[in-house]
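Is flavin mononucleotide placement plausible here? Inputs below.
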Amino acid sequence: MGQEIESQNPPPLLTAYQMGKFELSHRIVLAPLTRFRSFGTIPQPHAILYYSQRASKGGLLIAEATGVSDTAQGYPNTPGIWTKEQVEAWKPIVAAVHEKGGIFFCQIWHVGRVSNCAFQPNGQAPISSTDKRIKISNEVDISTFSTPRRLKIEEIPLVVNDFRVAARNAIEAGFDGVEIHGAHGYLLDQFMKDQVNDRTDEYGGSLENRCRFALEVVEAVADEIGADRVGIRLSPFADYSDSRDSNPEALGVYMASALNKYRISYCHMVEPRMITVGERMEVPHNLLPMRKAFNGTFIVVGGYNREEGNRAISSGYADLVAYGRMFLANPDLPRRFELNAPFNKYNRNTFYIPDPVIGYTDYPFLDAVSYTAKS
Ligand SMILES: Cc1cc2nc3c(=O)[nH]c(=O)nc-3n(C[C@H](O)[C@H](O)[C@H](O)COP(=O)(O)O)c2cc1C
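Reply from A.M.:
I modeled the complex. Tokens:
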């Protein structure tokens, strides 16, 4: 079967796809990638080159996780989109992607308890669904996380509104849409997962209650900018930052079907095999039940290579495949997939350094002329 797909021309990943009003010329998506290079929460001019290198005509790019408010931050040098200055700084970056014909969504997030008082206004406690501190993290030393403060029920609409305003700001900055970050143990995930959410009000307990906050954000954002400009990322199977669920499949299927009501553009799901943000493992589950439950565009991510991506598309398992580390290291990934060319290897040591060039914009492009001549 693999060989049959390999010989298809064009390969399934390189076929066109209509995502609502967006005409995609291929199925290869840039996954959101935090790079710690936005000093003082302001996206920097070096991001213009970085994103435009990865843009292609009719290709979908998702920008790195971007804070919705001054309580949303939990890492150094990550961008925001709640101030005028941030919006202005995004504009030339978005324009550069559009110049190349790319379609650009902004991933908007609130980290919740994956934070520290030092990142919070007036040194206050980070907010969450709970007042329990993170006890286990595969990624970071847990002493970096402060004990959170449980959001009061009357504060929840204020956070929903922060997402709404951030989405409006993203459109103002020129983005084509937003991806709501509902994955990886951040605030929305802290509400959805039953091993974190210990609330007894209408935002805790049953599956329906735990998903209420995320769905309210979806509704508010869709009302604000139009459902066809909205996607969401979910990782029901992941347990990053101590955020896990006792029945991830039920959670994933519930969310996938509940989302249909809002008619949003896409649902972007992380493969269960992604045990940590950057490692894959073989597991018995897959995303088929969620794919079947969701009526819109279904994007999968997590450990995909060219062959598996082609198979996911040709079998109908997904509409689009997002690539993180491969796209980080190969700015011309769609072109390399098209030519079945070799890849640059990513360097993990430079993922999160503040350097504006090294490990960021210095990954080489394929020399297509000599590559074609050699092959
Ligand atoms: C350097 C780096 C930064 C990441 N930043 C984000 C992020 O901002 N938002 C997010 O949802 N996922 C983030 N992820 C996860 C990726 O989007 C993707 O899901 C993961 O790398 C698995 O895909 P891959 O196997 O193609 O790399 C990040 C991963 C890496 C390696």
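Short version: The chain is about 30% helix and 15% strand.
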